[in-house]
């Protein structure tokens, strides 16, 4: 397997584990924004979701970090917003995770900033 294909497999596994971590804590309205074909982006993917309360936002963020650490042996290089828990951003270099309260997600509207990207909506489990 060539290195580029192996990196894509690793990124895809990372995105899948992130989604599992979100779903474990009942995160909703999950979207994956694929930025691979776009020039000048800071990452390859955004995974965006929301929780219904600050407690749930923080639980989702912790679950994502736990799933990735346990199953892929990776840690984020940074996480910001823990504590205020209105918007938590977790940086895994190739994938940025954004966990919002609904009103913050609507305000920042990240999905539409990257309207030219491929966007995949993940159905809610409930």
Structure overview:
- The structure is a single chain.
- This protein has 126 residues and is of the alpha+beta class.
- It is 41% helix and 25% strand.
- The chain has helices at residues 3-24, 54-72, 102-108, 110-113; strands at 28-34, 45-50, 78-80, 87-91, 95-100, 118-122.
- A six-stranded mixed sheet has the order 3-4-5-2-1-6.
- A hairpin with a 6-residue loop joins strand 3 (78-80) and strand 4 (87-91).
- Helix 1 (3-24) runs antiparallel to helix 2.
- It is globular, with a radius of gyration of 14 Å.
- The chain starts with a helix and ends with a strand.
Strand order of the largest sheet: 3-4-5-2-1-6
Give the termini distance in whole angstroms.
Answer: 38 Å
Please tell me how large the radius of gyration is.
Answer: 14 Å
β-strand number: 6
Q: Strand percentage, roughly?
A: 25-35%
Helix content: 40-55%
- Overall pLDDT score: 91
In DSSP terms (H or I, runs of 4 or more residues), the helix count works out at: 4
Low-confidence stretches: 1-6
Structural class: alpha+beta
User: Which H/E pattern describes the elements?
Assistant: HEEHEEEHHE
- Major β-sheet profile: 6 strands, mixed
Shape: globular
